[in-house]
Design brief:
By secondary structure, the protein is an alpha+beta fold. It is built from five helices and twelve strands. It is globular. It starts with a helix and ends with a helix.
């Protein structure tokens, strides 16, 4: 139940998974292979705009046709101030096993990520809190990956570069 509530709080991450492509590159600060976006949060019950929501992200595209294959986003949960990761993958993933995030050196301790919902732009995972061990490994290592099963039951491992993650994470936490 707690994970569901956390996911609902971070709905702004899910709302437009291809937002980074819609913004001009000069509008998005970059840190190595990571970018940072801040946007207005969802409106509250009074209809007033919500608090600004920021996240760092990395888009992974198909080398052959340039189409977006995956987006990895990390934000800070407003209530507990912990880092949360959400991944969006294309339609065609096998939903029951979810996805797994693996960091170099911690392959035996994947972050398990069940899917929350699928929409025309892809399937998005429930926001998962990243413990300090995972975040520290992401800051120090060069590679990570998202593993997912496809409908044909083949397992696909998609690379995630950690180049610039440390600087992007510092910018995210500092609000700058």
């Amino acid at each position: 139940m707690r994970k569901i509530i956390l996911s609902l709080l971070l709905l702004a991450f899910v709302a437009q998974p291809v937002l980074a492509e819609e913004k001009k590159a000069k509008d998005v600060p970059t840190f190595g292979d990571w970018g940072k976006i801040c946007e207005e949060g969802p409106a509250g019950p009074d209809g007033k705009a919500g608090k600004e929501v920021c996240y760092i992200f990395q888009n992974v595209s198909n080398k052959e046709d340039g189409k977006l294959v995956m987006q990895v986003r990390v934000g800070i949960a407003p209530k507990n101030k912990k880092p949360v990761m959400i991944v969006t993958l294309p339609l065609g993933v096998l939903l029951p096993p979810g996805a797994a995030f693996l960091v170099e050196g911690l392959e035996k301790e994947p972050v398990k990520m069940p899917f929350l919902a699928c929409a025309p732009e892809g399937c998005t995972t429930v926001g998962q809190v990243l413990d300090s061990k995972v975040v520290e490994a992401m800051k120090k290592k060069e590679k990570a990956a998202v593993r997912v099963a496809l409908l044909n039951k083949k397992v696909l491992t998609l690379p995630v570069s950690l180049k610039g993650f440390s600087r992007a994470f510092i910018a995210l936490k500092s609000g700058k």
